[in-house]
Write a structure and sequence with these properties.
Blueprint lengths: L4 E5 L4 H12 L3 E5 L3 H12 L5 E4 L7 H15 L4 E4 L5 E2 L7 H28 L4 E6 L16 H23 L5 E8 L6 H4 L1 E2 L3 E3 L8 H13 L4 E4 L1 H12 L1 H15 L1 E6 L23 H33 L1
Parallel strand pairs: 1-2, 1-4, 2-3, 4-6, 5-8, 6-7, 7-10
Antiparallel strand pairs: 9-11
Helix pairs in contact: 1-2, 1-7, 3-4, 4-5, 8-9
The structure holds NADP nicotinamide-adenine-dinucleotide phosphate (NAP).
């Protein structure tokens, strides 16, 4: 991975910042894009702490096609090529279908779909020009495979946009195959719930506080999956065992998966005790501040607790099996 050039959109916080840092740790040059320059500078400083890593900050609104073209141009001017492009910048709007203002609905589609289209076009152009080499990684979500309730509150434009990202990945792979382009790979990442500021930055018209739906995984886990994909590209990766189970279920028994997701979302994605005023969140104007990787939902702690619990269970199982075997040996 050393010396590879990686562009990450949405690098001012959350999964994007964690991903940029993970590539920097491998000695890659990272090109950081999002709207907040101050927060991108923080990401750049974190990245440059790693030996050999170089970072370039390019404030970019991904809904602006020309700005995204400029981002690609700056990356090539500075580092000579683009090996990996990570389309990651996204926003969310929670609310019943009829309650989310149309301007917010449109904005989610604009950032999460057209932002990815702009990124994919810019990346593919450069990758073709440099001789047909590179990896495009689109961050989708498990809701790209399993819809959150559509007959009930919550995040219709987001689910729609993530289904579109799945479709974009699939159709691009097919086009490249038909064209016989073997060196450009297109991958889709589907994380389950991740501990980032995403939920606080979302628009919310439900009247209830948005809560990260458990189980929650760490953004570093997604970042590792993205780095692994850059090394060994393949079609789609789900991050988080709970997400894998849900996606498997959605493929085998879609009606059941919709019912499970609807109930789970209603019970655990919105607070039953805390109200929230209507807000456009960070959809149209970015949240102030330096950005953060984590959202305070305990992804890292919970992952560690889950691992400890699994290790304890496995340990107990091994001990019990050992006791049974030694009793058997003694009896024999
Ligand atoms: N968190 C989860 O549970 C979860 C689960 C599954 C999938 N995902 C996906 O993972 C990706 C990252 O999510 P996250 O949780 O890290 O979210 P996040 O913490 O809210 O970060 C979103 C990033 O997108 C940037 N952004 C928003 N609008 C933009 C625009 N118009 N132009 C450029 N950048 C823009 C934000 O920066 P600025 O505000 O500075 O522009 C920020 O860097 C998204 O694609 C999301 O859908 C997240």
């Amino acid at each position: 991975m050393r010396e590879q050039v990686v562009v990450v959109t949405g690098a001012s916080g959350g999964i994007g910042r964690a991903t940029a840092e993970a590539f920097a740790r491998k000695g890659c040059a990272v090109v950081l894009a999002a709207r907040r320059e101050e927060a991108l500078e923080v990401t750049a400083r974190e990245c440059e702490k790693h030996r050999g890593a170089r970072a370039l900050v390019v404030p970019t609104d991904t809904t602006d096609a020309k700005a995204v073209e400029d981002l690609a141009r700056r990356a090539v001017e500075e580092f000579g090529r683009i090996d990996v492009w990570v389309n990651n910048a996204a926003v969310n709007a929670f609310g019943r279908f009829e309650d989310v203002p149309l301007e917010d609905f449109r904005k989610v589609i604009d950032v999460n779909v057209m932002g990815y289209v702009h990124g994919a076009r810019a990346a593919l152009r450069v990758m073709r020009e440099q001789g047909g080499h590179g990896t495009l990684i689109n961050i989708s979500s498990i809701v790209g495979a399993v819809s959150q309730p559509y007959s009930h509150p919550y995040s219709h434009p987001y689910s729609m946009s993530k289904h579109a990202v799945q479709g974009l990945g699939s159709s691009l792979r097919q086009q490249l195959r038909v064209e016989g382009v073997k060196g450009i790979r297109v991958c889709t990442v589907m994380p389950a719930t991740i501990d980032t500021p995403h939920f606080e930055q979302a628009a919310n018209f439900t009247g209830r506080k948005v809560v990260a739906m458990p189980p929650v995984y760490s953004p570093e886990r997604v970042a590792r999956a993205v780095v692994d994909l850059a090394r060994h590209p393949h079609r789609e990766v789900v991050v988080g065992p709970a997400g894998r189970a849900l996606v498997r279920q959605a493929r085998r028994t879609p009606a059941l998966a919709e019912r499970v997701m609807a109930r789970q979302t209603d019970r655990t994605h919105l607070s039953h005790t805390e109200d929230a005023p209507a807000t456009h969140g960070a959809l149209h104007v970015p949240a102030p501040g330096e950005g953060a990787v984590h959202g305070g939902w305990g992804g890292r702690r919970r992952t560690a607790m889950r691992r400890t619990a699994v290790a304890a269970l496995v340990g107990a199982g091994v001990t019990a099996a050992g006791r049974r075997i030694s009793r058997g040996v003694l009896a024999a």
